Amino acid sequence: MCTTYLATELIREFSEYDIIGNPRLVRLNPNVPWKTRGNGAVSILFGKGQGEKKIIGNIDGEDIWGYYYGASTPSTEADFERACAVVKDLSMFEDEKTNPGIVMYDTKPSERIYWQAVRDIVTQEGLWIITEPKFKRGYKNGRGLIGATAATAWKPRDRTYELIAYREKEKWGTERKIDEASVIAMDKKFYSTFNNYDYEEKHMIIAPSSPCPVLFGIRGDSESILPKAMDLLETEKVDRWLLYLSNQGTDDHIVPKSLGALEPYSSVMTTGMVSKNPAMIAGGHLVFGISSRGKEVDCTIYEPAKKFRDIGMKLRVGDVLTILGGVRERPFTINVEKIHVDSLSPHRIKTSNPICQDCSKAMKSIGRGQGYKCAKCGKKAKEQDAKFEDEIRDLEEKWYEPTTSALRHLAMPLKRMQT
Ligand SMILES: [Zn+2]
User: Fold this and answer.
1) Which of 23, 273, 293, 345 has the fewest CB neighbours in a 10 Å radius?
2) pLDDT at residue number 347
3) What are all long-range contacts of 277-286, with beta carbons under 8 Å and residues at least 24 apart?
C-alpha cells in the first residue's frame, strides 16, 4: 500500500520500544525502470531511548516521541515475524509493481549501499555479497529488499523533513478536503517549507492524487516548523501524523559526468554547448541538443514540466549550459531536471533581405543558403548582405527548474539551493 502508512502501523505494533531519531523516508534512483512511482523506502530505529526526546508524531491520539540518543536492542526472530505480519497485512500484492521487502539489522549496513541505490542500479545478487541482514523477507520478486536495505544504510549528509498526515480510514478513496487558501497562507508564512503549492499551475502539491491514506505531506528544512505549518492548514480531520527525516530535495541522485560518459538509468550534472536549437515534438515535449568534446546528446524537457519548456524554447546554438537530469536509454536523452545558463551566445536574426542598390527594391532569396537576386535587374547578393540584428535573449545566466508539481522527489528545489 502506502509505505509510509506502514511505518505508522509498525510504530503502533512495537509500542514497547522507543524510537531513536525520526523514522526515515528515503527516495532511491528515480530512473530505475521497474520501481514503484516514488521509489521510496522507510526505515525506523527501535531501541531504548536515553536523555532528551522530542514529539515526532501522533497516532491514536497519543504523542509519538523520538529520542535524540539511544541504544539499539538486538532484534529477535519473534519481532521480525511481528513486523512481517504487519507488512503482509497491508500490502496490495495484486499490483505488479508491489514487491515488498523487509530487513532487520542490529548494526547499520555500509553507507555505500545507499549511494549505489540512489545513483545506480543494484541487484539482489550483488547486494547480498556486500551485506547480510540479520533477518530479511521479500514478497513476490522481493525487489523491495533493495530499497529497505538502502534506507537502513542511509547516513544523511544533506537532509530535509516531511510531516505526513493521514486520513481517517473511512475516508480513504474519497475526495480530500483541504482548503487551498490555507495552503497558500502556510506556504507564504513558513519559508523553510517547500513544494507546497504550484503557483504556475495553480494547484496544491501537498496532497497526493492517489486514493492512499495520506491526507497531505509538508516538506521543509526545519523539523520544528512543520507541526506549526500543519496547524495552519484547514483540512478534514487528521487521523495521525508522523515526522520523517528524508533525502527528498537533496539532489543526492546526481553525479557530475562529462557528456561522453553518460550511462542510462543514472542522473547526472553535465556541461555542454547547445548544438541543436530547441524544437517541440509530438506529445508536447521539447528537445534540444548539447555537445562537448565532439560528443552530442539530446536533452528533453517533458510536457509535465509546463512553462519550463518556454525556457528551453529560448535556448540557442552556442549557449553554454549546465544540465541536471536523468539519462534515458531509449531514446537516448537527458530528462532535464534543472538548467543553469552558464553563458548566452549572441544570436543574430535576419530582419530583412538585401536591397538592390540600382532598383531600390528588396531582393528575393534564391534558395536556402544560396544568396539573393533582384527580380528586376538580376543583380545578385550574398547571404550575409541581408540585414541582421542581435536577438534579444530573454534569459539570464542563472538556474531554471520545471513547474513545482513536476519536480522529482529527490530534486533540490531552487528555493533550497538559494538559501
Ligand atoms: Zn535591381
Assistant:
1) 293
2) 86
3) 277/315, 277/316, 277/317, 278/312, 278/313, 278/314, 278/315, 280/309, 280/313, 284/309, 285/309, 286/312, 286/313
CA of 383 to the centre of ligand 1 (A): 16
Q: Looking at residue 408, which CATH number applies to its domain?
A: 2.40.50.1010
- Cell numbers for 68: 535524540
Regarding whether 353 and 342 lie in a shared domain, the answer is no
**Residue 355 CA, ligand 1 centroid: distance in Å:** 8
Distance 387 CA to ligand 1 centre (A): 17
Q: Using one digit for the tens of pLDDT, what is the confidence trace for 76-119?
A: 999 999 999 999 888 877 777 788 999 999 999 999 999 999 99
Separation of CA 369 and ligand 1 centre (Å)? 20
Does residue 363 sit in the same domain as residue 331? no
* pLDDT, average across residues 50-68: 96
Of 411, 409, 403, 412, whose CA–CA distance to 197 is shortest? 403
CA of 368 to the centre of ligand 1 (A): 20
Structural domain that includes position 121: 3-246
Query: 390: CA distance to ligand 1 center in Å?
Result: 27
How far does residue 374's CA lie from ligand 1's centre (Å)? 5
CA of 385 to the centre of ligand 1 (A): 14
